[in-house]
Automatic annotation (TrEMBL):
It comes from Zingiber officinale (Ginger). This is Peptidase A1 domain-containing protein. One of its GO terms (molecular function) is aspartic-type endopeptidase activity. GO terms for biological process: proteolysis. Residues 82-459 form the Peptidase A1 domain. Belongs to the peptidase A1 family. PROSITE patterns: ASP_PROTEASE, PEPTIDASE_A1. Residues 1-22 form the signal peptide. PANTHER family: OS07G0603500 PROTEIN-RELATED (PTHR47967), PEPTIDASE A1 DOMAIN-CONTAINING PROTEIN (PTHR47967:SF36). It holds the Pfam family TAXi_N. InterPro entries: Aspartic_peptidase_AS, Pepsin-like_plant, PEPTIDASE_A1, Plant_Aspart_Prot_A1, TAXi_C, TAXi_N. Keywords: Aspartyl protease, Glycoprotein, Hydrolase, Protease, Signal. The lineage of its organism: Eukaryota, Viridiplantae, Streptophyta, Embryophyta, Tracheophyta. It comes from the Eukaryota.
Length: 466
Protein backbone atom coordinates (compact mmCIF):
# COMPACT_ATOMS: atom_id res chain seq x y z
CA UNK A 1 0.00 0.00 0.00
CA UNK A 2 2.38 2.64 -1.25
CA UNK A 3 -0.11 5.49 -0.79
CA UNK A 4 0.05 5.03 2.99
CA UNK A 5 3.80 5.23 3.08
CA UNK A 6 4.09 8.99 3.79
CA UNK A 7 1.59 8.68 6.62
CA UNK A 8 3.57 5.79 8.12
CA UNK A 9 6.78 7.75 7.85
CA UNK A 10 5.17 10.70 9.53
CA UNK A 11 3.97 8.48 12.37
CA UNK A 12 7.43 6.98 12.73
CA UNK A 13 8.96 10.44 12.82
CA UNK A 14 6.48 11.54 15.46
CA UNK A 15 7.33 8.47 17.52
CA UNK A 16 11.04 9.17 17.22
CA UNK A 17 10.56 12.80 18.21
CA UNK A 18 8.43 11.74 21.17
CA UNK A 19 11.01 9.20 22.28
CA UNK A 20 13.91 11.61 22.12
CA UNK A 21 12.19 14.53 23.82
CA UNK A 22 13.42 15.43 27.29
CA UNK A 23 10.26 14.31 29.08
CA UNK A 24 11.06 12.07 32.02
CA UNK A 25 10.81 8.44 31.03
CA UNK A 26 8.30 6.52 33.06
CA UNK A 27 7.58 2.84 33.06
CA UNK A 28 4.56 1.02 34.37
CA UNK A 29 4.92 -1.20 37.42
CA UNK A 30 2.40 -3.98 37.57
CA UNK A 31 1.24 -5.45 40.78
CA UNK A 32 2.06 -9.15 41.15
CA UNK A 33 5.78 -9.59 41.79
CA UNK A 34 6.25 -11.19 45.19
CA UNK A 35 4.39 -14.38 46.03
CA UNK A 36 1.99 -14.32 48.98
CA UNK A 37 3.55 -14.04 52.41
CA UNK A 38 1.83 -13.77 55.80
CA UNK A 39 3.73 -10.57 56.56
CA UNK A 40 4.94 -8.91 53.32
CA UNK A 41 6.33 -5.81 55.05
CA UNK A 42 8.34 -7.95 57.39
CA UNK A 43 9.69 -9.94 54.47
CA UNK A 44 10.81 -6.77 52.66
CA UNK A 45 12.40 -5.51 55.86
CA UNK A 46 14.17 -8.86 56.23
CA UNK A 47 15.47 -8.74 52.64
CA UNK A 48 16.58 -5.12 53.11
CA UNK A 49 18.36 -6.06 56.31
CA UNK A 50 19.98 -9.11 54.69
CA UNK A 51 21.20 -6.84 51.87
CA UNK A 52 22.56 -4.42 54.41
CA UNK A 53 24.53 -7.10 56.22
CA UNK A 54 25.75 -8.41 52.90
CA UNK A 55 26.98 -4.91 51.99
CA UNK A 56 28.81 -4.63 55.29
CA UNK A 57 30.39 -8.04 54.63
CA UNK A 58 31.58 -7.10 51.14
CA UNK A 59 32.84 -3.78 52.37
CA UNK A 60 34.60 -5.19 55.42
CA UNK A 61 35.70 -8.70 54.60
CA UNK A 62 38.12 -10.46 56.89
CA UNK A 63 39.46 -12.81 54.35
CA UNK A 64 42.49 -14.13 56.13
CA UNK A 65 41.28 -15.16 59.48
CA UNK A 66 43.35 -15.85 62.50
CA UNK A 67 43.47 -19.51 63.54
CA UNK A 68 40.44 -20.46 64.85
CA UNK A 69 29.32 -25.92 29.42
CA UNK A 70 27.67 -27.56 31.80
CA UNK A 71 24.31 -26.20 32.87
CA UNK A 72 22.59 -26.59 36.15
CA UNK A 73 19.37 -25.31 37.65
CA UNK A 74 19.55 -22.26 39.86
CA UNK A 75 16.99 -22.03 42.67
CA UNK A 76 15.78 -18.90 44.46
CA UNK A 77 15.75 -18.80 48.26
CA UNK A 78 13.86 -16.86 50.88
CA UNK A 79 17.12 -15.50 52.29
CA UNK A 80 17.60 -13.58 49.05
CA UNK A 81 20.16 -15.77 47.25
CA UNK A 82 20.26 -18.45 44.55
CA UNK A 83 21.60 -21.97 44.91
CA UNK A 84 22.56 -24.77 42.53
CA UNK A 85 23.60 -28.34 43.16
CA UNK A 86 27.15 -29.60 43.16
CA UNK A 87 28.18 -33.19 43.79
CA UNK A 88 31.23 -33.96 45.87
CA UNK A 89 33.01 -37.26 46.52
CA UNK A 90 33.09 -40.84 45.33
CA UNK A 91 30.31 -41.93 45.17
CA UNK A 92 28.89 -38.41 44.67
CA UNK A 93 26.94 -36.68 47.42
CA UNK A 94 24.85 -33.77 46.14
CA UNK A 95 24.45 -30.48 48.01
CA UNK A 96 22.90 -27.07 47.21
CA UNK A 97 25.44 -24.22 47.30
CA UNK A 98 24.83 -20.49 47.13
CA UNK A 99 26.12 -18.99 43.88
CA UNK A 100 28.36 -16.20 45.18
CA UNK A 101 30.46 -13.96 42.96
CA UNK A 102 31.45 -11.91 46.01
CA UNK A 103 33.63 -14.56 47.68
CA UNK A 104 36.19 -17.06 46.45
CA UNK A 105 36.38 -20.00 48.86
CA UNK A 106 33.93 -22.84 48.29
CA UNK A 107 32.76 -24.62 51.44
CA UNK A 108 30.04 -27.02 52.39
CA UNK A 109 28.37 -28.30 55.53
CA UNK A 110 30.51 -31.29 56.43
CA UNK A 111 30.60 -34.27 58.83
CA UNK A 112 27.73 -35.67 60.84
CA UNK A 113 28.50 -33.28 63.70
CA UNK A 114 28.04 -30.16 61.51
CA UNK A 115 26.46 -27.40 63.53
CA UNK A 116 24.76 -24.34 62.01
CA UNK A 117 23.50 -21.56 64.26
CA UNK A 118 20.79 -19.21 62.92
CA UNK A 119 21.16 -20.58 59.42
CA UNK A 120 18.69 -20.02 56.60
CA UNK A 121 17.15 -23.30 55.62
CA UNK A 122 15.00 -23.71 52.54
CA UNK A 123 11.54 -24.17 54.00
CA UNK A 124 10.79 -27.69 55.05
CA UNK A 125 14.14 -29.08 53.90
CA UNK A 126 16.97 -29.97 56.16
CA UNK A 127 20.24 -30.41 54.37
CA UNK A 128 22.25 -33.55 54.90
CA UNK A 129 25.87 -32.54 55.38
CA UNK A 130 28.64 -33.97 53.24
CA UNK A 131 30.18 -37.05 54.85
CA UNK A 132 33.90 -37.33 53.97
CA UNK A 133 34.00 -40.75 55.56
CA UNK A 134 31.59 -42.07 52.94
CA UNK A 135 33.83 -40.84 50.12
CA UNK A 136 36.88 -42.72 48.85
CA UNK A 137 38.34 -39.57 47.25
CA UNK A 138 38.33 -37.19 50.25
CA UNK A 139 41.74 -36.00 51.48
CA UNK A 140 42.80 -33.20 53.79
CA UNK A 141 44.92 -30.40 52.30
CA UNK A 142 48.38 -30.70 53.81
CA UNK A 143 49.99 -27.95 55.85
CA UNK A 144 52.71 -27.51 53.22
CA UNK A 145 50.34 -27.70 50.26
CA UNK A 146 50.46 -24.30 48.46
CA UNK A 147 46.66 -24.30 48.62
CA UNK A 148 46.93 -23.90 52.38
CA UNK A 149 48.25 -20.40 51.56
CA UNK A 150 44.83 -19.60 50.09
CA UNK A 151 43.44 -19.25 53.58
CA UNK A 152 46.49 -18.62 55.77
CA UNK A 153 49.42 -16.25 55.56
CA UNK A 154 52.91 -17.62 54.90
CA UNK A 155 54.09 -16.11 58.19
CA UNK A 156 51.44 -17.91 60.16
CA UNK A 157 52.13 -21.23 58.43
CA UNK A 158 55.90 -21.15 59.00
CA UNK A 159 55.52 -21.78 62.70
CA UNK A 160 52.20 -23.50 62.54
CA UNK A 161 53.11 -26.29 60.09
CA UNK A 162 55.95 -27.41 62.37
CA UNK A 163 53.48 -27.59 65.22
CA UNK A 164 51.00 -29.42 63.03
CA UNK A 165 53.52 -32.17 62.45
CA UNK A 166 53.53 -32.67 66.20
CA UNK A 167 50.93 -35.36 66.89
CA UNK A 168 50.06 -33.87 70.26
CA UNK A 169 49.05 -30.52 68.79
CA UNK A 170 45.40 -29.64 68.16
CA UNK A 171 45.38 -29.95 64.36
CA UNK A 172 45.05 -33.25 62.52
CA UNK A 173 48.48 -34.58 61.62
CA UNK A 174 50.21 -32.26 59.13
CA UNK A 175 46.89 -30.88 57.85
CA UNK A 176 46.42 -27.28 56.87
CA UNK A 177 45.23 -25.55 60.07
CA UNK A 178 41.48 -24.93 60.39
CA UNK A 179 40.01 -21.91 58.62
CA UNK A 180 37.53 -19.45 60.04
CA UNK A 181 35.89 -17.34 57.35
CA UNK A 182 34.03 -14.33 58.64
CA UNK A 183 31.21 -12.97 56.50
CA UNK A 184 29.78 -9.76 57.93
CA UNK A 185 27.62 -10.96 60.77
CA UNK A 186 28.12 -14.65 59.97
CA UNK A 187 31.00 -17.09 59.83
CA UNK A 188 32.05 -20.63 59.05
CA UNK A 189 34.94 -22.80 60.22
CA UNK A 190 36.45 -26.11 59.24
CA UNK A 191 39.28 -27.84 57.40
CA UNK A 192 40.30 -27.56 53.76
CA UNK A 193 40.01 -30.78 51.82
CA UNK A 194 40.61 -32.09 48.31
CA UNK A 195 37.62 -33.76 46.79
CA UNK A 196 36.23 -34.76 43.44
CA UNK A 197 33.72 -32.20 42.24
CA UNK A 198 30.89 -33.18 39.94
CA UNK A 199 28.83 -30.67 37.99
CA UNK A 200 26.24 -31.58 35.40
CA UNK A 201 27.94 -34.80 34.33
CA UNK A 202 31.52 -33.43 34.41
CA UNK A 203 33.96 -34.36 37.18
CA UNK A 204 36.97 -32.45 38.46
CA UNK A 205 39.36 -34.34 40.76
CA UNK A 206 41.24 -32.64 43.63
CA UNK A 207 39.00 -29.63 43.92
CA UNK A 208 39.87 -27.66 47.06
CA UNK A 209 36.77 -27.18 49.19
CA UNK A 210 36.21 -26.22 52.81
CA UNK A 211 34.75 -28.92 55.03
CA UNK A 212 32.89 -26.75 57.53
CA UNK A 213 31.98 -28.17 60.92
CA UNK A 214 30.55 -24.99 62.40
CA UNK A 215 28.69 -22.06 60.82
CA UNK A 216 26.70 -19.11 61.94
CA UNK A 217 24.13 -17.13 59.90
CA UNK A 218 24.92 -18.91 56.65
CA UNK A 219 22.81 -20.44 53.91
CA UNK A 220 21.95 -24.00 54.90
CA UNK A 221 23.89 -25.56 52.05
CA UNK A 222 27.25 -23.80 51.88
CA UNK A 223 28.77 -21.38 49.38
CA UNK A 224 30.26 -21.76 45.91
CA UNK A 225 32.89 -19.00 45.60
CA UNK A 226 32.71 -17.57 42.06
CA UNK A 227 34.78 -14.44 42.82
CA UNK A 228 38.17 -13.66 41.31
CA UNK A 229 41.38 -15.30 42.50
CA UNK A 230 43.04 -18.72 42.58
CA UNK A 231 40.78 -20.46 45.13
CA UNK A 232 37.57 -19.59 43.30
CA UNK A 233 35.59 -22.28 41.55
CA UNK A 234 36.04 -20.78 38.05
CA UNK A 235 39.83 -20.53 38.57
CA UNK A 236 40.20 -24.03 39.95
CA UNK A 237 38.18 -25.43 37.07
CA UNK A 238 40.01 -23.28 34.52
CA UNK A 239 36.75 -21.81 33.19
CA UNK A 240 36.93 -19.24 30.42
CA UNK A 241 33.42 -18.03 31.14
CA UNK A 242 30.39 -18.63 33.28
CA UNK A 243 26.90 -17.22 33.16
CA UNK A 244 23.73 -17.18 35.18
CA UNK A 245 20.13 -16.23 34.61
CA UNK A 246 18.15 -15.42 37.75
CA UNK A 247 14.41 -15.96 37.78
CA UNK A 248 12.16 -13.15 38.56
CA UNK A 249 11.79 -11.86 42.12
CA UNK A 250 10.76 -15.09 43.80
CA UNK A 251 12.69 -15.60 46.94
CA UNK A 252 10.33 -18.38 47.83
CA UNK A 253 12.30 -21.65 48.06
CA UNK A 254 10.04 -23.05 45.35
CA UNK A 255 12.13 -25.68 43.61
CA UNK A 256 9.69 -26.03 40.71
CA UNK A 257 10.68 -22.66 39.24
CA UNK A 258 14.29 -22.07 38.45
CA UNK A 259 16.82 -20.21 36.37
CA UNK A 260 20.20 -21.55 35.31
CA UNK A 261 23.93 -21.36 35.80
CA UNK A 262 26.30 -22.37 32.99
CA UNK A 263 30.00 -23.15 33.26
CA UNK A 264 31.98 -22.42 30.11
CA UNK A 265 29.03 -21.34 27.95
CA UNK A 266 29.81 -20.88 24.26
CA UNK A 267 31.56 -17.67 23.22
CA UNK A 268 29.07 -14.91 22.58
CA UNK A 269 29.48 -11.38 21.35
CA UNK A 270 27.28 -8.36 20.85
CA UNK A 271 25.60 -9.99 17.84
CA UNK A 272 23.73 -12.14 20.35
CA UNK A 273 22.25 -9.05 21.94
CA UNK A 274 24.73 -8.91 24.81
CA UNK A 275 26.16 -5.60 25.97
CA UNK A 276 29.67 -5.71 27.38
CA UNK A 277 31.63 -3.67 29.83
CA UNK A 278 35.21 -4.44 30.89
CA UNK A 279 36.08 -5.67 34.37
CA UNK A 280 38.27 -3.15 36.13
CA UNK A 281 41.14 -3.94 38.44
CA UNK A 282 41.09 -2.44 41.87
CA UNK A 283 44.85 -2.18 41.64
CA UNK A 284 45.20 -0.07 44.79
CA UNK A 285 43.75 -2.97 46.74
CA UNK A 286 46.62 -5.31 45.72
CA UNK A 287 46.65 -9.05 45.11
CA UNK A 288 46.27 -10.04 48.77
CA UNK A 289 43.41 -7.65 49.42
CA UNK A 290 39.92 -9.05 49.94
CA UNK A 291 38.68 -6.51 47.39
CA UNK A 292 40.70 -8.35 44.74
CA UNK A 293 37.98 -11.04 44.85
CA UNK A 294 35.28 -8.68 43.52
CA UNK A 295 34.23 -8.05 39.94
CA UNK A 296 34.61 -4.30 39.48
CA UNK A 297 32.96 -2.57 36.54
CA UNK A 298 33.08 1.03 35.30
CA UNK A 299 29.73 2.62 36.05
CA UNK A 300 29.81 6.02 34.37
CA UNK A 301 26.32 7.28 34.90
CA UNK A 302 23.06 6.62 36.71
CA UNK A 303 19.94 8.06 35.08
CA UNK A 304 16.52 8.44 36.68
CA UNK A 305 13.61 9.15 34.36
CA UNK A 306 16.01 9.62 31.46
CA UNK A 307 18.02 12.33 33.26
CA UNK A 308 21.57 11.89 34.47
CA UNK A 309 21.91 12.04 38.24
CA UNK A 310 24.75 14.24 39.49
CA UNK A 311 27.07 11.95 41.40
CA UNK A 312 30.67 12.71 42.36
CA UNK A 313 32.42 10.71 39.63
CA UNK A 314 35.30 9.86 41.94
CA UNK A 315 33.05 7.72 44.15
CA UNK A 316 32.31 5.40 41.24
CA UNK A 317 36.00 4.48 40.95
CA UNK A 318 38.20 2.85 43.59
CA UNK A 319 40.37 5.43 45.39
CA UNK A 320 44.11 5.24 46.15
CA UNK A 321 43.57 2.76 48.98
CA UNK A 322 41.02 0.63 47.13
CA UNK A 323 37.78 1.99 48.61
CA UNK A 324 34.89 3.01 46.36
CA UNK A 325 34.11 1.59 42.94
CA UNK A 326 31.24 -0.51 41.65
CA UNK A 327 30.97 -4.30 41.82
CA UNK A 328 28.52 -6.89 40.49
CA UNK A 329 27.48 -9.51 43.01
CA UNK A 330 25.16 -12.49 42.78
CA UNK A 331 25.07 -12.95 46.56
CA UNK A 332 23.67 -9.49 47.40
CA UNK A 333 19.89 -9.15 47.19
CA UNK A 334 19.09 -5.41 46.93
CA UNK A 335 21.66 -3.12 45.32
CA UNK A 336 23.69 -1.13 47.81
CA UNK A 337 24.73 2.48 47.21
CA UNK A 338 26.91 4.49 49.59
CA UNK A 339 25.14 7.69 50.73
CA UNK A 340 27.10 9.99 48.43
CA UNK A 341 25.75 7.96 45.49
CA UNK A 342 22.36 7.10 46.95
CA UNK A 343 21.32 10.54 48.21
CA UNK A 344 21.25 12.16 44.74
CA UNK A 345 19.48 9.07 43.32
CA UNK A 346 16.87 9.24 46.08
CA UNK A 347 16.41 12.98 45.48
CA UNK A 348 15.99 12.35 41.74
CA UNK A 349 13.24 9.79 42.34
CA UNK A 350 11.45 12.03 44.82
CA UNK A 351 11.71 14.93 42.38
CA UNK A 352 10.46 12.89 39.42
CA UNK A 353 7.55 11.36 41.28
CA UNK A 354 6.48 14.60 43.03
CA UNK A 355 2.88 15.54 42.32
CA UNK A 356 2.02 12.08 41.10
CA UNK A 357 2.28 10.04 44.30
CA UNK A 358 2.92 11.05 47.90
CA UNK A 359 5.94 9.76 49.71
CA UNK A 360 5.10 7.27 52.46
CA UNK A 361 7.47 7.54 55.40
CA UNK A 362 5.35 5.02 57.30
CA UNK A 363 6.23 2.36 54.70
CA UNK A 364 9.86 3.47 54.75
CA UNK A 365 10.05 2.88 58.49
CA UNK A 366 8.37 -0.52 58.16
CA UNK A 367 10.47 -1.82 55.28
CA UNK A 368 13.82 -0.11 55.78
CA UNK A 369 13.65 0.93 52.11
CA UNK A 370 13.65 4.48 50.67
CA UNK A 371 11.83 6.10 48.98
CA UNK A 372 8.38 4.53 49.30
CA UNK A 373 5.35 6.09 47.61
CA UNK A 374 1.65 5.78 48.40
CA UNK A 375 -0.21 4.67 45.30
CA UNK A 376 -3.95 4.25 44.69
CA UNK A 377 -5.04 1.11 46.56
CA UNK A 378 -4.82 -2.00 44.42
CA UNK A 379 -3.71 -0.02 41.38
CA UNK A 380 -2.84 -2.36 38.53
CA UNK A 381 -0.47 0.09 36.85
CA UNK A 382 1.77 2.56 38.63
CA UNK A 383 3.95 4.92 36.59
CA UNK A 384 7.43 5.47 38.01
CA UNK A 385 10.64 6.89 36.53
CA UNK A 386 13.05 4.65 34.66
CA UNK A 387 16.36 3.70 36.28
CA UNK A 388 19.30 3.18 33.94
CA UNK A 389 22.99 2.42 34.43
CA UNK A 390 25.53 3.41 31.78
CA UNK A 391 28.81 1.54 31.82
CA UNK A 392 32.25 1.96 30.39
CA UNK A 393 32.34 0.65 26.83
CA UNK A 394 28.83 1.90 26.03
CA UNK A 395 26.83 -0.85 27.71
CA UNK A 396 23.54 0.39 29.09
CA UNK A 397 21.27 -1.35 31.56
CA UNK A 398 17.77 0.11 31.45
CA UNK A 399 16.11 -1.81 34.18
CA UNK A 400 12.55 -3.01 33.94
CA UNK A 401 10.48 -1.46 36.70
CA UNK A 402 10.12 -4.78 38.52
CA UNK A 403 13.88 -4.87 39.05
CA UNK A 404 13.95 -1.79 41.28
CA UNK A 405 10.49 -1.10 42.64
CA UNK A 406 8.39 -3.49 44.64
CA UNK A 407 4.85 -3.33 45.95
CA UNK A 408 5.29 -3.23 49.70
CA UNK A 409 1.52 -3.55 50.17
CA UNK A 410 -1.64 -2.92 48.15
CA UNK A 411 -1.17 0.85 48.41
CA UNK A 412 2.56 1.45 48.39
CA UNK A 413 5.74 0.87 46.38
CA UNK A 414 9.36 1.07 47.52
CA UNK A 415 12.70 1.39 45.74
CA UNK A 416 14.72 -1.80 46.28
CA UNK A 417 18.05 -0.11 46.80
CA UNK A 418 19.65 0.15 50.21
CA UNK A 419 22.13 2.62 51.62
CA UNK A 420 23.94 3.36 54.84
CA UNK A 421 21.17 3.16 57.42
CA UNK A 422 21.17 4.99 60.70
CA UNK A 423 19.91 1.92 62.53
CA UNK A 424 23.22 0.15 61.95
CA UNK A 425 26.62 1.62 62.74
CA UNK A 426 27.57 3.62 59.64
CA UNK A 427 31.23 3.12 60.43
CA UNK A 428 30.66 -0.47 59.45
CA UNK A 429 30.29 0.41 55.78
CA UNK A 430 32.80 3.25 55.50
CA UNK A 431 35.23 1.36 53.27
CA UNK A 432 34.81 -1.00 50.33
CA UNK A 433 32.72 -0.66 47.17
CA UNK A 434 30.45 2.38 46.80
CA UNK A 435 27.93 0.44 44.73
CA UNK A 436 27.13 -3.28 44.88
CA UNK A 437 24.81 -4.35 42.07
CA UNK A 438 22.64 -7.01 43.69
CA UNK A 439 20.67 -9.94 42.34
CA UNK A 440 17.24 -8.28 42.60
CA UNK A 441 18.39 -5.84 39.93
CA UNK A 442 19.82 -8.65 37.76
CA UNK A 443 16.71 -10.78 37.52
CA UNK A 444 15.57 -11.77 34.06
CA UNK A 445 18.97 -10.84 32.70
CA UNK A 446 21.45 -13.27 31.23
CA UNK A 447 24.70 -12.24 32.94
CA UNK A 448 27.97 -13.51 31.44
CA UNK A 449 31.27 -13.29 33.26
CA UNK A 450 33.74 -13.51 30.40
CA UNK A 451 36.93 -14.27 32.34
CA UNK A 452 39.01 -14.85 29.22
CA UNK A 453 38.26 -11.42 27.78
CA UNK A 454 37.88 -9.76 31.19
CA UNK A 455 34.42 -8.36 30.69
CA UNK A 456 30.86 -8.58 31.88
CA UNK A 457 28.07 -9.17 29.38
CA UNK A 458 24.34 -8.88 29.92
CA UNK A 459 21.04 -8.90 28.08
CA UNK A 460 17.43 -9.01 29.16
CA UNK A 461 15.67 -12.31 28.74
CA UNK A 462 13.21 -14.49 30.57
CA UNK A 463 15.14 -16.80 32.88
CA UNK A 464 12.34 -19.09 33.92
CA UNK A 465 12.89 -22.78 33.23
CA UNK A 466 9.89 -24.90 34.04
C1 LIG B 1 54.93 -31.42 70.66
O1 LIG B 1 54.04 -30.61 71.43
C2 LIG B 1 54.21 -30.81 72.83
C3 LIG B 1 53.10 -30.01 73.53
O2 LIG B 1 52.97 -28.74 72.99
C4 LIG B 1 55.63 -30.39 73.25
O3 LIG B 1 55.82 -30.62 74.63
C5 LIG B 1 56.64 -31.21 72.44
O4 LIG B 1 57.95 -30.78 72.73
C6 LIG B 1 56.37 -31.08 70.95
N1 LIG B 1 57.26 -31.98 70.21
C7 LIG B 1 57.96 -31.59 69.14
C8 LIG B 1 58.77 -32.63 68.46
O5 LIG B 1 57.93 -30.42 68.73
C1 LIG C 1 45.01 -35.70 43.53
O1 LIG C 1 45.88 -35.43 44.60
C2 LIG C 1 46.49 -36.58 45.12
C3 LIG C 1 47.25 -36.19 46.37
O2 LIG C 1 47.81 -34.92 46.27
C4 LIG C 1 47.40 -37.19 44.04
O3 LIG C 1 48.02 -38.34 44.52
C5 LIG C 1 46.53 -37.53 42.83
O4 LIG C 1 47.36 -37.95 41.77
C6 LIG C 1 45.74 -36.32 42.37
N1 LIG C 1 44.80 -36.76 41.35
C7 LIG C 1 44.62 -36.11 40.21
C8 LIG C 1 43.67 -36.72 39.24
O5 LIG C 1 45.17 -35.05 39.97
C1 LIG D 1 44.19 -6.25 35.42
O1 LIG D 1 45.12 -7.14 35.98
C2 LIG D 1 45.44 -8.25 35.16
C3 LIG D 1 46.31 -9.22 35.91
O2 LIG D 1 46.94 -8.63 36.97
C4 LIG D 1 46.08 -7.75 33.86
O3 LIG D 1 46.39 -8.82 33.03
C5 LIG D 1 45.10 -6.81 33.17
O4 LIG D 1 45.67 -6.26 32.02
C6 LIG D 1 44.66 -5.67 34.08
N1 LIG D 1 43.59 -4.95 33.44
C7 LIG D 1 43.56 -3.63 33.41
C8 LIG D 1 42.38 -3.03 32.75
O5 LIG D 1 44.42 -2.93 33.93
C1 LIG E 1 -0.99 13.68 49.10
O1 LIG E 1 -1.25 14.01 50.43
C2 LIG E 1 -2.09 15.16 50.56
C3 LIG E 1 -2.19 15.50 52.05
O2 LIG E 1 -2.42 14.37 52.82
C4 LIG E 1 -3.45 14.87 49.95
O3 LIG E 1 -4.29 15.98 50.05
C5 LIG E 1 -3.24 14.51 48.48
O4 LIG E 1 -4.48 14.14 47.91
C6 LIG E 1 -2.25 13.37 48.32
N1 LIG E 1 -1.94 13.21 46.92
C7 LIG E 1 -1.95 12.03 46.30
C8 LIG E 1 -1.58 12.04 44.87
O5 LIG E 1 -2.25 10.98 46.87
C1 LIG F 1 -7.15 -4.41 47.92
O1 LIG F 1 -7.04 -5.81 47.71
C2 LIG F 1 -7.07 -6.55 48.89
C3 LIG F 1 -6.79 -8.00 48.55
O2 LIG F 1 -7.33 -8.33 47.31
C4 LIG F 1 -8.41 -6.36 49.59
O3 LIG F 1 -8.43 -7.11 50.80
C5 LIG F 1 -8.59 -4.90 49.91
O4 LIG F 1 -9.88 -4.66 50.48
C6 LIG F 1 -8.43 -4.05 48.66
N1 LIG F 1 -8.44 -2.64 49.05
C7 LIG F 1 -9.15 -1.72 48.43
C8 LIG F 1 -9.09 -0.34 49.00
O5 LIG F 1 -9.81 -1.97 47.44
Amino acid sequence: MPSHLPLLLLLLLLLLVAASSSDPISLPLRQTPLPPHPDPLHRLAALASASYFRASLLKNPHRRSSPPSATSSLFPHSYGGYSFNLAFGTPPQELPLLLDTGSHVTWLPCTSSYHCRRCASPSGNTITPFLPRSSSSAALVGCRNPRCLWIHSADFLRSRCAACNNVTSDCPVSACPPYALIYGSGSTAGLLMLETLGFSGRTFPNFTVGCSVFSQRQPAGGIAGFGRGAPSLPSQLGLRRFSYCLISRRYDDDASERGSVVLDPPKQDSSSGLSFTPFLNNSAAGAGSPFSVYYYVGLLEIAVGGKKVKIPHSSLLPDHIGNGGVIVDSGTTFTYMASKVFDPVLAAFVDRVAGRYNRSTALEVQTGLRPCFAVPPNATDVELPELAFRFKGGAEMRLPMENYFVFADAAGVCLTVISDGDDVATADVAGGPAVILGNFQQQDYLVVYDLERRRLGFRRQSCLII
